[in-house]
Sequence to fold (365 residues):
Amino acid sequence: MSNSKNLIDLLLIIAITFGIYMGTLNSGFVWLDHSQIERGECIIKNIPELKNAFIRPLLVTQGKGNYYRPLFKISYTIDYFMYGLNPRGFHFTNLILQVLNLILLYLILNLLGIERIAVLISCVLYAILPLNVSSVACLVARADVLSAFFILLSFFSFLKFEIGNKKRWYLFSLLGYLLALLTKEIAIGFLPLVWLWIYWKQKPQKYIFPYVGITILYLLGRYLILGRIGTRIPLLWGSPYSTLLSSCVGFFNYLLKSFLPYNLSISDAFPRYNSIFHPLVLVSLVVVCLFILSFLKFISSKKIIPALALGWILSFYIPISNLIPALHFWAERFFYVPEIGVIIILAYVMDKKSWVRKIVILALH
Fold:
C-alpha cells in the first residue's frame, strides 16, 4: 500500500472525527466536572506537588481512596495550566486523544495485514459508534480514552518490534503499558494479550517477563497507596452468584449496544440478577459461552487475528466486570477499550467476506 493512500485514509478519518465531535468544544462542565475540575479535586495547582499524584489516591473520601490514576490527574493538570478553567480546552484534549487512538488503530490493523478498505471502514465505524460518544464527549471519561491511547501505543510498538526486531520498539511497548496502568486499571488486561501474542508468534518467553514485572510493581504500589488491590466494594451487591450472572448480562448488553445503540446514558443504573432462569440471564450465558468457545476454537486452529479480537474483548472486559473487585460495573464509557476488539474482528470479517463489507458500507450510509 502506498504512503499516499495511507495519508488520504488518515486525513479522512481525522476529518470525520472532527466533524462528529467539534460540537463538544462548545460544551461546558457537567456532572463530576464541577468537583473534579472546577473545585480542583483532580487538578494539581502547584508544580512541586506533581509527585503527590503518584503517591496518593486520586480522590479521597472519609480518609480513604478508591482510585489510583496519577496520569489521569496529571492530564487534567496540564489542561488547567494551558487553558485555565475553560472547558473548551479540556474537550479539545479529549478530541485529540480520540484522533490519536484512531490513527494508532489504523496503523495496527495495517500491521495485522487487514485489507486497506476494511481498515478504513473499521476505523470510521469506531469513530462514529454511538456507544463511544460519552467516552469522548464526557470529560470524566478522560481516563478511558487516555488509557486506550497508551494501550494501543504499547501494542503498536510491540508489533513494530516483532517485525523489525529493534529493541527500542520493545522499550516503547513496555513504557506504553506502564503509562496505561498509571492512567486506569483496565490496562492490566493487556498483560494476557501480549503473552498470548508472544506465544502465538513463537517469540522467546523472556519477552513477557518485563510486562509481568511492571504489573507486579503496579499492583504493589496500588496496594501500598490504597490499602488494597481492588476497592472497598468487595463484590457487586455482595453475592458472588449474583455477580457472575450480572456480569454475563453486562457483557451481553455491551455487545448488543455496540450494534443497537438504544437507551444510551452516561451512567446507567444496572439491575441485579439473582436467577439463572431469568430470560436475559439465559440469553447472556449462551452468548458468553459461545464467545469463549469461539475464542478457544480460534486459538486451537491458529487463527490469530480473530483470536486476538475476541481475546481483546474478554481480557479488557474482566477488569470492568466486577468478577475481580472493581470500582464500577456498568457505564457505556467503560467499554471504550474492549470495543476495539469488536472493531478488530469486524475488520477481519470484512477483509475475508466482501459481502459483509458491502453491508457495513450500506449501514454507514
The radius of gyration is 20 Å.
